[in-house]
Design goal:
Length: 476
Amino acid sequence: MLLKTIQMKFIINKIASLSFLILFSVSIASAQEVIKEKALDTIKAQTSKKAQKVDGVIAKVGDYIILDSDIDKSFLEISSQGNPIKDITRCQMLGKLLEDKLYAHQAIQDSLKVTDAEVKSMMDERLNYMVEQIGSMDKVIKYYNKSSEEEFRTYFFDILKEQKLTSEMQKKIVDAVEITPEEVRNFFKTIPAADLPIFGVELEVAQIVITPKVSDADKKKVIDRLNQLKKEIQEGSSFATKAVLYSQDPGSRATGGFYKMNRKTPFVKEFKDVAFSLAEGEISAPFETEYGYHIIYVEKIKGQDIELRHILLTPTITEESLKEAKEKIALIKKRIEDKEITFAEAARSLSDEKETRANGGALINTKTQDTHFELTKMDASLYSQVSNLKEGEISQPLLEEDPSGKKKFKLLTVTNRINEHKADYAKDYTKIKDLALKEKRFKTIGKWFDEKINETYIKIIGEYRDCTFTNNWLKK
């Protein structure tokens, strides 16, 4: 859970040395956002204030080098994503770049695996996104000042590989950090009473879902359409092109239906069962999941990983089916209000949503993995539906449509409201544990930097040796 008083002194004092690392954890060349003209103007205005000089190497970490222009690119990337840059110095930005290079360098020393195939998959996905947003590959190449697509792909490949090495190293460090109940208790005891965090209003929410029924005729139309697409693909059409044109999966349509998965990837069981039953190059028959009907094409099998493409089509819901579902959920609401059945009992026996049915309709906060939702940090659509409900009150039937076009009716109720309060060890143990774990991770990362800086060849050149860094990059 996020805190209302996130600037608490006791946290700031303990993690200040690593705050810059966390604040700008977005990597310098993520390419996930389109660079806006305003961002370009900001950087141009900033760089025009200082004398022009020839770009050159300003630092080295192991085998990695940092150019003076890398700092300007970092400012540009941060600004393009709407983050302020006016209070960030070039020395601070260099410190962040040094951290990234040290992570990547140590990942290689620790033999962390990053395959070219993984990087190529990342690159294809990101390039498809950029082309979709900017308009063409030529515009992407022009933006990065490269002379050809081949030159750009080589440049971008190296950036993505370094990013992947950096993220794998960070993950290795923090994943090894665990915390005991005793450490949580000791952490809480160190917080002065005046600095105890304030947790905002929280709600526990439950729902009942009724999904309009699809007629057999409409199911057959979708299955027949998928079989037709499969036949055209087997006769030479591109699966990726068909997915871009026809798939109703918003998560993969732009990338030609592409997914990379293994048996631990959190896909629905039916999808995984079909995917892992196919041979490389094989296309499945149409099959059903809760999202609609699919066909899958397996492109590559690499050990435990599968690279595949799929097309999703959802059957049309008739007005008659919508009317029947609305009448059904209205009747459920009346039965609950007439005390014939409780909300939880109705959810268990009548709701069409299997994820919440067994828990009496209780929603799980995916960020915290508990049932509490902080009101001011709640998803906007859920907030609009429950913010005005009193405890125990039931919403009117709500018609909801997901990005793929699938419709359903919902009833929502607030099962518990927890008012704003100062942190209490017993009541807020989970949130306090999260804070304690974050602090321990900060300390672990700080210790890791101290050790690896001493062990690694690091050189900083010219005027940047006058910088005051958070970490001991100059080894003074």
